[in-house]
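queue> pop job 88
queue> type: inverse folding (structure -> sequence)
queue> payload:
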């Protein structure tokens, strides 16, 4: 059902100021929809202004409405939609998983280094 809904649209308006991962933004772009969102979180990373969508400053509703109106103009909409799917083809689950796993490994190693440094300070002779 979700794919059918995406496929029936032309433009994805996403006025969220609380999203984090941006799965719906990825789904919309993968479905060939232009995206209008706030310049925040995942949308800020995934939406390339004037290429696959438009961004408004976070929380600026008048700017969001202006961006939506601009994106809905036929010539703009056609260009944005034409680039949408292509712009996120490199976002596959394996790449996302690998990047997340690498971030976790770096965090653990950093924590271990800090713990070792703290232990060395505590154990240092006077």
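queue> result:
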């Amino acid at each position: 059902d979700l794919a059918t809904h995406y496929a029936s649209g032309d433009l994805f308006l996403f006025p969220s100021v609380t999203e984090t991962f941006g799965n719906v933004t990825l789904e919309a772009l993968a479905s060939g929809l232009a995206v209008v969102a706030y310049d925040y979180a995942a949308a800020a990373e995934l939406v390339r202004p004037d290429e696959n969508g438009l961004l408004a400053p976070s929380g600026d509703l008048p700017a969001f409405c202006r961006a939506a109106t601009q994106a809905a103009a036929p010539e703009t909409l056609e260009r944005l939609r034409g680039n949408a799917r292509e712009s996120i083809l490199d976002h596959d689950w394996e790449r996302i998983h690998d990047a997340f796993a690498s971030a976790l490994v770096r965090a653990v190693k950093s924590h271990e280094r800090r713990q070792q440094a703290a232990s060395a300070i505590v154990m240092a002779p006077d």
